[in-house]
Structure formats: structure tokens, C-alpha cells
């Protein structure tokens, strides 16, 4: 999933929800949303079948497992489930949670950049002196997540990045829908 660039939800000609996964290497996957739910429930049913023993502790484990899978897959609107927090690899190769409000405006050699993912194994910067459309969708999404709104300048940069990200995702989807069979065109 580290190669995932964008996910769009569209309807096909029968009215079914289709998830379109755009990968950073250019590949595109189309998956029926109902098939995903069916697959997860089938796996859950199999795991709960394994734990169907008359022993009460196994039944308790089975119930905990069902609850955990429901939360992780987002199938139910469980209020106890925490929000999704994106992660990245740090310089030691460990997965680290992205920190909110950690993006900063930095000037290096007279060039203003927005620095984010500072603990990562790679340096991530978005140049503010050129068009934001030249940045990758994944980088924009990570920068938006980490940019706070307490500073008015950062708030304006975040608003611009959100606008550019929406346009880039719409363009990506529009290009795909021109070549896809059985999927209605996106409406502006």
C-alpha cells in the first residue's frame, strides 16, 4: 500500500460502487466495493469457525477478534475505533506515525519550502516558490495531514494544497474514466 497514490469511488453502469486504486507506478486496479466486504466477512466467518469450541475463553477470543476486525476494516461505525494515522519509515527502517502540526516553513538558499516528515529516511519538501501542481499526490496528502492551521500563513498554504490535491485527483479520475469500460464519466 506504500505505492498507493489515490483511491476514487465511482459507480458502474449497473449502479454498483467501484473502488479505483491508482498506484504510483502507473497501474490501476478496479475492485467492486461489495466484493471487498464479502471477502472480509468470509475471512471473519472462517476465523470465528476455528474458534467455535464450547470453551468460554475461546468464545471470548472469537468475540474480541470479530470486534477487532470490524474496527480495522471500518465495516461498522464503531465509536471505539480510533482514527487512521498514516505511517512512514524512519531512518532506522521503523514505521513511525505521522505527527500532526509538524510541518514548518523553512528557507534554504533563498528558497521557501514546506518541510514535513522530518524524521523520515528521506527529506520531504514542497517548494512554495513554484506551482504546487508539480508535487506528487502522495506528498501533498502527507503535507496536508501534517500542516496545522494555527498559523495564518500555514492555513493559507494548506488551503492551496487541498485545492491542488482535489484538482489532481479529479484529473486522474477523469483520465481513467475516458479509457474505462462500463464506468460513468465523472461529473464536475
In short:
Helices cover 39% and strands 22% of the residues. With 188 residues, it is α+β, with helices and mostly antiparallel strands. The protein is globular and about 65 Å long.
Describe the protein:
The protein is α+β, with helices and mostly antiparallel strands. It has 2 domains: about 5-75, no CATH class; about 85-180, no CATH class. About 40% of the residues lie in helices and about 20% in strands. The chain is built from 4 helices and 8 strands. It has helices spanning about 35-50, 55-75, 135-145, 150-180, and strands spanning about 5-10, 15-25, 30, 85-90, 95, 105-110, 110-115, 125. The strands form 3 sheets. It has a 3-stranded antiparallel beta sheet with strand order 1-2-3. A 3-stranded antiparallel beta sheet has the order 6-7-8. The protein has a two-stranded antiparallel ribbon with strand order 4-5. The model is unreliable at about 75-80 (pLDDT under 50).
Amino acid at each position: 500500500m506504500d505505492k498507493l497514490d489515490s483511491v476514487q469511488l465511482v459507480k458502474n453502469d449497473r449502479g454498483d460502487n467501484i473502488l479505483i486504486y491508482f498506484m504510483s507506478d502507473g497501474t490501476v486496479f478496479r475492485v467492486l466495493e461489495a466484493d471487498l466486504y464479502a471477502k472480509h466477512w468470509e475471512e471473519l466467518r472462517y476465523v470465528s469457525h476455528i474458534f467455535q469450541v464450547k470453551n468460554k475463553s475461546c468464545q471470548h477470543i472469537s468475540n474480541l477478534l470479530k470486534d477487532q476486525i470490524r474496527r480495522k476494516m471500518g465495516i461498522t461505525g464503531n465509536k471505539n475505533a480510533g482514527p487512521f494515522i498514516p505511517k512512514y519509515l524512519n531512518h532506522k527502517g521503523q514505521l513511525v506515525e505521522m505527527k500532526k502540526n509538524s510541518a514548518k516553513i523553512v528557507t534554504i538558499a533563498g528558497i521557501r519550502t514546506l518541510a514535513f516528515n522530518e524524521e523520515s529516511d528521506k527529506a520531504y519538501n514542497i517548494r512554495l516558490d513554484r506551482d504546487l501542481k508539480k508535487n506528487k499526490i502522495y506528498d501533498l496528502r502527507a503535507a496536508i495531514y501534517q500542516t496545522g492551521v494555527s498559523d495564518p500563513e500555514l492555513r493559507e498554504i494548506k488551503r492551496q494544497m487541498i485545492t491542488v490535491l482535489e484538482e489532481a485527483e479529479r484529473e486522474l479520475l477523469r483520465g481513467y474514466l475516458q479509457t474505462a469500460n462500463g464506468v460513468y464519466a465523472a461529473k464536475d
